[in-house]
Amino acid sequence: MSPPNGVPPGSTETEYLQAPTSPQDEAKCEPEEVLAAPENDAEVVVPPDGGWGWVVVFASFMCNMIVDGIIFSFGTFLRPIADTFHVTEAHVALVGSLMSGFYLIAGPFASAVANRYGFRLVAIVGSVLGAAAFALSYFATGVQYLCVTFGVLGGIGFGFIYVPSVITVGFYFEKWRALATGIAVCGSGIGTFLFAPISSSLIHSLGWRTALLCQGAIVITCVIFGILYRPLKPTKVHDIKIDEEETELKMDPNKLPPVTRMKMEKALEAMKSSQSCHGSQNSINRVLGANNNSNVYHTISIPQQRVLDISCYEKRLSVPFITNDDKAKDIDAKEYLLQDESANPVIVPKTVRRRSAVDPEVNRPMYRDDIFFSASLTRLPQYTSRTSIAYNLSVTRLPTKNDIEEEKNRSIKLWPEAIKRTLTTMLDFSLFKSPSFLLLAVGGFFTMMGFYVPFMYLTDRAKMYNIDENSAVFLISAIGIANTVGRVLCGILSSFPGVNALFVTNAALTIGGIATIFSGFSMTPEFQFTYTAIFGLAISCFASLRSIIVVDLLGLENLTNAFGLLLLFQGVAAVFGAPLAGAFKVATGSYDASFYLSGSLLLASAIMCYPLNYINRWELRRKNKTDNKLSVVI
Q1: Structural domains in the chain?
Q2: Spatial distance between the Cα atoms of 133 and 144, rounded to a whole number of angstroms
Q3: pLDDT tens digits along 540-551
Q4: Taking the model in full, what pTM does it have?
């Protein structure tokens, strides 16, 4: 069997000190922030794969349906609001674009808050904030007023609803994650299908102001669904125990590959200079061993894909220690839970001789590397190469001592540890050093600039060409149905490990972009509904396969970091896309120019990402050459 993820070439599992490799593991910390181990028993959240999880799936489905349904149906408000304030539709489009943009931009911040206070509270706060934004929008005196209330406040509120609905399903499911997540995100397509005609009907019957109030009343129901996000309690795992008299576990550094030894030496030097972590350790043996602090699991970070600036190392639950001491081999077979049939590295914690006073039940969802991975876990070698418990331990980082103390004391801080670490991770700009990520981010930026244009202007363009009003409204609904079907198909397709998610996405965006450019070729209802079906299928691939592409290119350890930065890129793009397309319409007097722009942006995003696999392989080869040169120097 191949070594676990992150093992340098030429080393074996028994020669390699597995350690966290995500950007979170490079966060600065103080000596007292080292991970505490309350007892001999480690804590890990193991997804139950059912039970209350299906209630969470329902709640997530409903939240996705409401949030995306309202966002994608905003185009029905363009003309009524424009007529009220005597402005162009391009000006009004900025209101909806701000909501779409801040809905994404708020993602990293909502994630950070959820990491400290849980999914439930974040969803409830988002629901109240969103509903308040709609209520305030009733009193709008101009487009600028709506930009602040509906656009910014409403977008932030929706972002706080969106993040828990995306993350919490994966927290409850492991074996059935792809199915559960697929059902939940289908709420987006169903919401688009339902809210377009509902919003149009409310506007015609009650006016756009009262229609916003009605939508606000619907948004407040997300409080009920948020309450259903019941947090999972960590499970105790009886780890391998060692003799209480054993004070240190050692490993022969000569067995390490040269590159790994070099990184260990760099880490040692950094720790000596900063005195922020284990400054008292003065050799590789000491770094590999446990110090005398009985409350600490010990590890050191050896990144898989890049040499990082090291000043301190967070502690991950899955920390293998190698020892030649016969005392450490005295293991109770019944408690040998963390080592699978392939003899993967296992946890060997220091024995704690007295009970800690801190509460061990600290649930930190963002400390899981796979929290944003929505596809089947069978695509991950980390999952297929080990047991369920071992996998959950390997992708989970324990909370720091400060985390636990803040939880125990219920202290209220402006900048809590759990929030700080999450934001540091998701907004770590060092990932911009990767050409693969840069190209992926720019491609996503172009995609999102063209993404919302059809939703915003398709109905009005159809009306301009004398298509029946009911049929024009249902064009948006047709996109929703096609989006739902596409997400299901993508879920099935992604379950096959051999499927190239990047190529599928690029092909879908190419087809969707070309279809959008030629969408005005005929304004018959049949042609327009055909176009909406193609467009809906295309965007479903982009939305469903994004996390798979990130993991394929950058590794699971970079998923959280990449996801946070991509949300920022896509949010900024969403703010400018539809208003820019509206300006094209004003300048040319025709919506055709808007759709030309949208289709061209989608097509350009696909074309620039076609060589991404080759660039990624080139980047890895360049890194390997650099590592080989360094090993020769050593």
Answers
A1: 13-34+235-359+362-427 (no CATH), 46-231 (1.20.1250.20), 428-634 (1.20.1250.20)
A2: 14
A3: 999 889 989 999
A4: 0.73
